[in-house]
Amino acid sequence: MTTGTMPSSSNAVKRGEGPALKKQRTNSVIKLVPEGQRIFKDFVIFFFPNNDVSPARRLRIQRAREYGAQWATEWIDSITHVVMDKDLTWSDLAKFLGLEYLPEHMVMVNEIYPSECIRFRSVLSPEQKRFLVDGVKAQDVSTENPSKPSEPSPSSSLVLKPSRRSLLKTPEPSPSLLSGPADGQAPAKHIPGSVVILGNTESRTTLNLDALDELLAEARATSHLPLDLLEMTDDEAGEYENESASSTSKDLSNLEPEKVAPTNEIWARSFACMQKLNTAAKSENPNKCTIEVLQQMLDYYSRSDDHWRTLAYRKAIGALKRHPKKVTSRVQALSIPGVGARLADKIEEIVLTDRLRRLDNAQETVEDKLLQQFRGIYGCGLAQASKWVAQGYRSLTDLRERASLTKNQLIGLERYDDFAKRIPRHEVEAHGALVRQAIQSVDGRVQVIIGGSYRRGSPDSGDVDLLVTEPGSNLQQIRAVVLDTVIPKLFESGYLQVGLQTSRRNGEGSKWQGASKLPGSDVWRRLDLLFVPGEEFGAALLYFTGNDIFNRSLRLLARKKGMCLNQRGLFTDVMRRGPAKVNKGRLLEGRDERRIFELLGVPWRAPEQRNC
Hints:
lyase activity; five-stranded mixed β-sheet; 24 helices; 39% helix; Rossmann fold; single chain; alpha/beta
């Protein structure tokens, strides 16, 4: 029998002094579910990458441990399951650990597997196609007899509580089924597409279901569970509940136009878009020190693509900016709209200690520093950065010399320092003026407006966002002017350096992305040209000005009032079936930004007052 090579990653493992397992992190408490629900009690799981830097992976590890699993922090013989991040393959693990084969007693599955088991409150078969990892087949990596199919264990079947009707219709099992197979008789094979029904005794019988019955059984089994169970953090769950509460619940069988609510409702006053930000008092804010620490945590979660925690921190920071008094306790923090219980604890810790332990821990890990560095490369997201870390790359030089990079990633690596620099406000204006002059030399009616953080009054920006529009022109006409005439001229002049991404010519895309540099400068800057039809200009300007919390608040308020707001306009008479839109509705306004505010009943907020 051939087994995998076991690389020893610690002296303790070499000496056989015991497995490197984690039952509990030092900075968190795992709350185990009741013993009868610990479906992973016999599991020893090795996650790959095997760290909890990624918020999503950290949550998967936590939930697996809550359901009884042990987390193996090192590669040891007692591992039962290997859980791979998406986009990673068997070859990634083999290369990283120096393996030739996966030991036969180990099961390799993708990251979906633990969450699905928890959804169904049962250990599912790892041989299902949706759980397989590229490069490895179910149960045949290192078996003694690969040609022999493996028998699925009874625990791999989905255990469901039978309905009263099914119990009445199910015939009594035969004595042979109740007593089990006779001596020397092969056990009955599990039939695909069946479920195991458990009665009051420990006997089992298999009931074949057709496709419809399976779907109904699955729906009943999971009806009490939230969507994306493992991917929903406490902050996300709170946000989900808030948004669900703000939309009108409907019977899925009914389909009707939503009614537009009056614009002077008291409930609307608490929305972020209804609050006026006092920019003059920003530097004198009594909670300035607390905000600075929370901002560092916000930056950390932004780098990790943790959308819901990023949103929660931004809302809390916005609330503290507007609060006139210094917040010194958890109780005071909880009294502020937009601050939840967990953030209130952190605010109190910052006030009492002038630091935040969670931030200290986040900033100390080597993996996080590498992720931050790799994510600074244009064209590299969190998934790609995590994959590079898992593959053993430890520097930009490593990537340049050894990694397989796309064209855009090569450019992002070569211009890493340029793209990482903030762009001063005066330089953003210079880029805008140069592009405006080039476009208007071709068509004098075209307008070029600088959007993004520049329009909100920021002293610097990450890139240059330019909205290109022309009254009375459609998207195709504007694209033709810019893509066919203006951009080639800007390349010839030496202003544009490279095109990074262009939306499809025949599609709905409306953006050109590239890099440029001003005359006399060697620094490349990221440049986005956004093509906007005249009839959508007001809505697009509102959307691309931001910030994201202000936009989110406006969209949620519009939904509450029975309307829909997006970058193309404000619509009414929107028909919905549950949360899903069935039609786009009727356009109320798209050209005039101020008119959209009026229709929503929101006082006009100048761009610099939208930094929620």
